[in-house]
């Protein structure tokens, strides 16, 4: 029996240990998972209360009194939160005089406290309470086979998704992703009809619409909460070349009228991904192209677990969110977070009639990028 010991990155062979020591070590392993869950809740609080932002702005060592005063919070609560974060090695600490002082490392500033950084990572922590709330729905889902759609996570769930994807897109969509699709930037500059399926709060589409005023952009999403955010942003932008739709109110285009389609991290969440491949094939012009962006995944469970150090997180999020959405209707496909490897995406594209499928040279820690076309 081999056990991976939480927090220490060690794999240990337990066969030489006594049964009692094996149980103790396994209990330590399991409670290490609980520590991670509780610390994730503390990270949510740090983001929500502006504690990371205050530490990022200060940069230098801070006492609990300084931090509490800076954000207008009770020092005793702030101190206990700091102790959790320091013990979990999320923030740095040292003893100065008779008390501990704390700060964020440069890397922590970008991940925790700088929303302008492409490495900002607070989106999933923002929606952590809503994600964990789904635990109450899971017994029914496991019994019936039917999960919950994205709007079951409420408006803050939509905000969390928005905050998850916007920083990287803001830094890379125009400068790295579009140039990877040959001739696309020039086409958008001349004027093209673009459809973004699974547009969420519309951040990527609004960025494109501002950069390419001669093109027209339409965003579709099944989340009413996300679309409300998108409409609010659209009103504030003053842009006139963008429109957002719910497919129940305005169906997807059915004629070969679209030059470019994008789907960012949404196909694996769909109840009928195969049907969406057909829909996209139908809406694209003969020379149209589709940018499919989805989670990097391997063909087998064994490969995912072996090669992906975040596999347990992704499978868990799948139960609470991605696969739940993909099974939110009877007979939903249920691909789940790691359910769309390149081989399956390629096969589904071929079945839909597409003849060209190319993996693009775009570096991303989680996602793979594909260009798909009819010719």
Chain-wise SSE layout:
Blueprint lengths: L1 E4 L4 E4 L5 H30 L2 H8 L5 H8 L3 H13 L4 E5 L2 E5 L2 H8 L9 H4 L1 H6 L4 H7 L9 H27 L3 H7 L2 E5 L5 H9 L4 E5 L3 H14 L4 E4 L12 E7 L8 H11 E12 L5 H7 L3 H16 L15 H11 L3 E4 L7 E7 L2
List keywords for this structure.
globular; 2 domains; 375 residues; alpha/beta; seven-stranded mixed sheet; Rossmann fold; 17% strand; 16 helices; Arc Repressor Mutant, subunit A; two-stranded antiparallel sheet
Describe the fold and architecture.
The protein has 375 residues and is of the alpha/beta class. It has two domains: 2-116, Winged helix-like DNA-binding domain superfamily/Winged helix DNA-binding domain (Arc Repressor Mutant, subunit A), CATH 1.10.10; 129-373, Vaccinia Virus protein VP39 (Rossmann fold, 3-Layer(aba) Sandwich), CATH 3.40.50. 50% of the residues lie in helices and 17% in strands. The chain is built from 16 helices and eleven strands. The protein has helices at 19-48, 51-58, 64-71, 75-87, 106-113, 123-126, 128-133, 138-144, 154-180, 184-190, 203-211, 224-237, 273-283, 301-307, 311-326, 342-352, and strands at 2-5, 10-13, 92-96, 99-103, 193-197, 216-220, 242-245, 258-264, 284-295, 356-359, 367-373. It has a seven-stranded mixed beta sheet with strand order 7-6-5-8-9-11-10, sandwiched between helices. Strand 6 (216-220), helix 12 (224-237) and strand 7 (242-245) form a beta-alpha-beta unit. The longest helix is centred in the N-terminal third of the chain and has 30 residues, at 19-48. The chain is globular and about 70 Å long. The mean pLDDT is 94.
């Amino acid at each position: 029996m081999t056990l991976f010991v939480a927090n220490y990155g060690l794999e240990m062979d337990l066969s030489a240990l006594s049964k009692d020591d094996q149980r103790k070590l396994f209990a330590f392993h399991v409670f290490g998972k609980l520590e991670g869950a509780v610390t994730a809740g503390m990270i949510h609080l740090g983001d929500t209360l502006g504690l990371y932002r205050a530490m990022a702005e200060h940069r230098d060592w801070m006492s609990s009194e300084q931090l509490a005063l800076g954000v207008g919070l009770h020092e005793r609560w702030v101190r206990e939160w700091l102790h959790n974060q320091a013990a979990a090695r999320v923030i740095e600490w040292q003893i100065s005089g008779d008390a501990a002082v704390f700060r964020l490392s440069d890397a922590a500033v970008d991940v925790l406290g700088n929303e302008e950084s492409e490495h900002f990572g607070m989106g999933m922590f923002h929606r952590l309470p809503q994600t964990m709330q789904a635990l109450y729905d899971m017994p029914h889902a496991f019994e019936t086979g039917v999960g919950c759609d994205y709007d079951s996570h409420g408006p803050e769930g939509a905000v969390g998704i928005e905050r998850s994807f916007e920083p990287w897109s803001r830094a890379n969509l125009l400068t790295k992703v579009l140039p990877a699709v040959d001739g696309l930037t020039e086409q958008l500059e001349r004027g093209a009809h673009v459809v973004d399926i699974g547009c969420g709060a519309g951040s990527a589409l609004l960025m494109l619409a501002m950069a390419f005023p001669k093109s027209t952009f339409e965003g579709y999403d099944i989340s009413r909460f996300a679309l409300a955010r998108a409409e609010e942003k659209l009103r504030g932008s003053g842009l006139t070349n963008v429109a957002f739709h719910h497919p129940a109110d305005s169906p997807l285009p059915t004629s070969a009228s679209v030059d470019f389609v994008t789907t960012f991290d949404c196909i694996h969440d769909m109840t009928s991904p195969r049907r969406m491949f057909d829909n996209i094939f139908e809406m694209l012009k003969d020379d149209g192209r589709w940018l499919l962006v989805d989670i990097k995944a391997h063909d087998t469970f064994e490969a995912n677990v072996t090669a992906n150090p975040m596999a347990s997180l992704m499978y868990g999020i799948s139960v609470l969110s991605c696969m739940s959405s993909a099974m939110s209707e009877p007979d939903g496909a249920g691909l789940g977070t790691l359910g769309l490897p390149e081989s399956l995406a390629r096969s589904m594209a071929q079945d839909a009639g597409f003849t060209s499928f190319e993996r693009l040279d775009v570096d991303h820690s989680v996602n793979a990028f594909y260009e798909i076309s009819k010719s």
